Amino acid sequence: VCKALDTAGYLTGLLGAGVDPLYLPALLFGLAALVAFATGSSWSTMMILLPLVVALAFQLGAGTAVGGHVLMLMSIGAVLEGSIFGDHCSPISDTTVLSSISSAADHMDHVRTQAPYAILTMAAALAFGYLPVARGWWPAWAGLLLALGFLGTWMVLVGRRAGDEEEPIEPTSA
Asked: Of the candidates 20, 129, 114, 113, which has an alpha carbon nearest to the alpha carbon of residue 81?
């Protein structure tokens, strides 16, 4: 249906002049994350976005330094990763609900405790991967190393071990 309607051609014409193609993977990463968070489903987000993204990214990337194939692969990865991120953090996702049930944890406590780690990883992927690699500022392997260094440093400086919390102060009876 997308091919018969020339959806990719329409989206390319619509976005072509208004969006720098090298920002497309980062934008798709964020869009997929929002859709998956709102729907609670990574698979449906992938099914919605991937048929549109493949041809769109290839056509927009043809006129860039990275080329159509590379932008297409980065965009596919962005949709997959954004979908999984949104599904992982969504309180209405089946996997999130089942995780909290199987661990006998309060559901919203489970969502609140996993979200900071996922958001930090998403920020590292955007800051060290999608944006600079697409712009050609450094190669993909350098982005992986920088993100790993950032996340490791964050865990050393900010992170705590599970048993290191202060004991709660019990109320005293008067």
From this structure: 129
Dihedral sign for Cα atoms in the order 100, 104, 109, 115: negative
Total length of the chain:
174
Half-sphere exposure of 105 (CA within 13 A, CB side): 15
User: 18 in helix, strand or coil?
Assistant: coil
Q: How far apart are CA 87 and CA 80, in angstroms?
A: 11
Which has the closest alpha carbon to 50: 69, 26, 27, 78?
A: 78
Rounded Cα distance, 130 and 147, in Å: 11
**Does an H or E element contain 137, and which?**
none
Contact 77, 62 (CB under 8 A): no
Whole-prediction pTM: 0.80
Write down the pLDDT at residue 167: 60
Distance of CA 6 to the CA centre of its chain: 27
Q: What is the pLDDT of residues 46-73, one digit of tens each?
A: 998 998 899 888 988 888 888 889 899 9
Tell me the helices (H) and strands (E) count for the chain, helix number first. 9, 0
